[in-house]
Amino acid sequence: MNQSTAFRRKIVYLVILVATLVPLYLLGRPSDGTPDSGGQLALMRQKYGIAESDLGEISPASETMKLASLGLRGVAATLLWEKAHDYRVAHEWDRLKASLNNIALLQPHYDKVWEHQAHNLAYNVSIEFDDYRQRYEMVREGTEFLTRGVRQNRKAPRLIWYTGWFYGQKIGMSDEKKQFRRLFSEDKVLHDSLANEGIAVDSNEAKGPDQKPDNWLVGRLWLDHGYDIVDAGVKIRRQSPINFFETGPKWLFKHAEAIEKEGVLDERAVRAYTKSSEGWEQFGRRSIPTNDGFSIKLGSLDDLNAQKNEKLEQFRKVAGDVYEKMRDEKVAALPVDVRKVYEKAPEERTEAGKQAMPAILASIEPNRDQVLKQLPQSAQLTAIQLIDEIKDLDARIQKTDSYRRQINYVYWQSLAMAEQEERTVQARRLVYEAEKANADAEIYLAIEKYKQAFEIWAEIFDDYPILTIDDSAEDLYMSIRRYMIAIDSEDLPEDFPLATFARMMNSENGIQNADAYKLVREQQVDLAAKRKKELEEEERARELEAMKAAEAEKATEEQPEAESDPSEDAEMKSDESNDPESAEAQPAEAQPAEEMKQEEADSPEEQADSEEQAEPAEPDSPDADGDSAEDTDSKADAESAPQEAPASTDDSGSDDSGSDDSGSDDTPGSDDAS
């Protein structure tokens, strides 16, 4: 090979290199900041919003780290992850922080880096310290690490959501939440940092009852920031929309619960729950995308059902006799007992029948496709449109109901309603005061406060059974346990207002279903009413028995006087007949006795009893037994009356007969008595 050949090859290589640089320049020319400037790649970054400036804050150190890795950024990041784990195990916190910073520089736009390492600091590292102040510092390190990630990933809603989650959940629900919440409210350095990120910590939206920033409310402001980004068109990645949007409204509830546990039990707590209710209603009106290609609103379930019923009614009118005929055939095919329930009037159905009616109505609903086949051709097009609309509404109703049950939508809605009532705040205040009195060894005051609180809670649970599965229900049950200790009893009183709640909470799994509590409570009320009626009947029976015994004792006491010795009566009569004054006085003395017997025989009560005795009485009626007993006693008195007359007339002669005549003339109704 001569020199000329080598030179020519060098020229060819140089031309190829220059020719290669031209397309590279056209493709990779950077933008100068103006629209539609730069190469093709710069234009594509602007179009799809994937430029460094569009993603977040540009970090020169991060770009330098990427170049220094010589294309081995993934390998370097993996090695740093391993080193970070080793440093955490060895408790080398400074080296751990340095490793985390290097990982973030190598992978600044990978959300998982920020989430994982922030969780590592706030949860795993913080528990290694004994002092809660040091634990709080590590939690703050984790939240600030997330804030850096948000700055470099402005279009990462999941990362913003995670930051709001940290401020609420980690600070407000950890074992040291009381100390953490106080330290956060006084952490002015952190407050200034949050203000620089656009979080209005000085606004009323972030301040608690003490007019200091509250961690739950600050976390909610972070979440609202994420919601604004999504509403602007950024898609949610790596998280379900329903979970993403529910956290912000829930943080308002958590704030209200937190201040109540801290002793704020006045109108400020009511306002907090009112605000929670407004936030939950707003959440119910938000359009939430689903995997089925349509969006739903959790608060529109009633509207969807109303629309479906309207479309069904239109379909019935279009189908006409065909629909009615097929429906009648299904009704005729029902079992006899089921058909009887269906044919009863709504007010005549039992509770079980009312619960079974939705399933019965669904079973007799004709198949719409089969109805469509039997319709005339002129009505089929309209019927097809209605069927499609009904199917779409069914899908939306099913998805809406599924999402509502997934997040327990009705529970939070009922909680907001219940907690806005003054009696609920009063019940919580009484429990709080009882707990404080119990801790101060004021046992009698604590018992009285407990009783008042439990009576109110029983009324609240009757109106809102779903609150029995509230997080605070466990706290209320523990208060019941402390009340049992205060009264020095292992069993609750029979009339304890929360007996059903305590019994179900004492079971193996506690109260898992609010409907189950409602059913048990209703059954308990019915059983209590039935038992009360039984006790009243038993008490009435005992009173009747006591009345019969008293009447029998009275009759026994009067019987010896009626059957006295005839010889003694004769002597008394002869003595009285020899004494003119006594003979004249005898009719006057005999008259009250005759009148008394006549009144006993013909008293209005006994006449009424005798009339009732003539009427047929029920065999098991206690009144019938009582009346018959009184009639028997009256007959016995009436029979004993004429037995005394012969005893006095046999030995007394004309004087006695004269006495009887005078008595009979002066005594009204004496003829009836004789």
UniProtKB/TrEMBL annotation:
Q: Which organism is it from?
A: Roseiconus lacunae
Q: Which UniProt keywords apply?
A: Membrane, Transmembrane, Transmembrane helix
Q: Which residues cross the membrane?
A: 12-28
Q: Where is there biased composition of kind Basic and acidic residues?
A: 538-557
Which residues lie in Acidic residues bias regions? 558-569, 601-631, 652-664
Q: Where is the composition biased (Low complexity)?
A: 583-593, 665-674
**What is the official name of this protein in its record?**
IRE (Iron responsive element)
Q: Which residue stretches belong to region Disordered?
A: 538-674
Source organism superkingdom? Bacteria
